[in-house]
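To close the section, here is one more complete example, presented without commentary so you can practise reading it yourself. The ligand is IPE.
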Amino acid sequence: MRKKLPKHIGIIMDGNGRWAKRRGLPRVFGHKEGVKAVKRIVSYAAERGIKYLSLFAFSTENWNRPKDEVSALMKLLNEYLQKEINELIEKGVSLRVSGRVDMLPDETRQKLLDAIELSKNNNKLVLNLCLSYGGRSEIIDAAKNAAMDVASGKLTLEDFESKFDNYLYNPDIPDIDLLIRTSGEQRISNFMLYRIAYSELYFTQTLWPGFYEDELDLAIDEYQTRQRRFGKTDEQVKGN
Ligand code: IPE
Ligand code: IPE
Ligand code: MG
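Output:
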């Protein structure tokens, strides 16, 4: 029997700063190498038949970093969108964004929206860039919108729980099956709180710029050894 691939992989891409520091370089060099890792992992995920990839690139809390670092990150993002959009389209990637995009610089937001529009008909891989993203903000935004629909009569309280997913940032993207965090930290740092309720977790010491295709394979292999029970018993799961 062929083993089940995770449909949706989420990655907390951490460790760029430490990667640079270990080489005596400024943090921004780590971010530049981090972009290279993004390119290879996006290509490889598409090749391996992964359908959804969510990359945590910039959190709501990351706005509190030094101004220079924030603007260097925005510049790298602009360059990435400009240089990569054609290749992403060629590879069949459909780009999405999750987060409070209104906080992004105008130029960056516009580039993102253009890239999303240009790639919207692709269906090999959905690449969900999580930018200015916070798991709590996502839940709060969803709850506010759902509450407004209750107030206006569009949503009933009976349906609130079953329809709540529809109010998340990209409602058609399913829950995360496999969550990877690089750099040795074992925490969530406000990533995808709602969609990781039953994710399998994979932590690695590797710093993000040093993350290569073979390690994605390792994470997928590890995922395939796990038994996902979703609260049921072993017997129930095997009986299915
Ligand atoms: C991850 O690397 C990238 C972002 C959060 C933007 P870091 O910049 O957090 O790297 P470390 O954790 O300081 O090594
Ligand atoms: C998480 O990394 C956010 C991203 C990878 C974009 P951080 O480096 O911001 O997380 P903490 O501060 O170590 O928890
Ligand atoms: Mg970090």
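Once you have examined the tokens, check your reading against these statements. Helices lie at 16-22, 27-47, 67-90, 106-118, 135-151, 160-163, 213-225, 234-239. The chain has a mean pLDDT of 97.
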